[in-house]
Amino acid sequence: xxxxxxxxxxxxxxxxxxxxxxxxxxxxxxxxxxxxxxxxxxxxxxxxxxxxxxxxxxxxxxxxxxxxxxxxxxxxxxxxxxxxxxxxxxxxxxxxxxxxxxxxxxxxxxxxxxxxxxxxxxxxxxxxxxxxxxxxxxxxxxxxxxxxxxxxxxxxxxxxxxx
Length: 163
Fold this sequence. Notes:
The structure is a single chain. This protein is mostly beta strands. It is about 15% helix and about 45% strand. It has one domain (about 15-25, about 55-160). The protein contains 3 helices and 7 strands; from the N terminus they run βαββαββαββ. The radius of gyration is 19 Å and the shape is globular.
C-alpha cells in the first residue's frame, strides 16, 4: 500500500473581511440563576443575563465571497471587561480570537463577543444609524472557517483603507 502524503496546513496570512450591515436586532434577557443544573454553565450568582446583537449583512471583501450574505451574532461579555480593566489579575488569560467566521456552502455566520460596557454604546450607535459596516481582520478562510482577531464597527467604508 503506497504511503499517503501528509497534508500540511497553509501558512496563515491576514485577511480583511468587510460587511455592509443591512439589518440589526437587539436582544436582552435577565433571569434568576435558580436552577442548580445550570450553575455549572452560567456560574455562581443570583442572576444570569444575555445580551446580543443579531446583524444581517453582505460581504464586500474579500472578492471571492463578495455579494454573499452573512448572519452575525455579537454577544456582550462581562468577563472581557474584567480582563481589559485589570489584566494583571489574569496573567494566564488567553484567547485565539474575538470570534469565528464560517463561510461554507449555505452556512455563512460569524459569532463573536465584545465587552459588556461597550455593547450598550454599540447598540445605541446602531439605533442612531452611525454603524453601517463591520470590518474584520483575521485568518483567511481554511476549509470554510477563520478565526477573527479584531472587529471594527464603522460608519463609512473606503476600499483604499485596506489596500
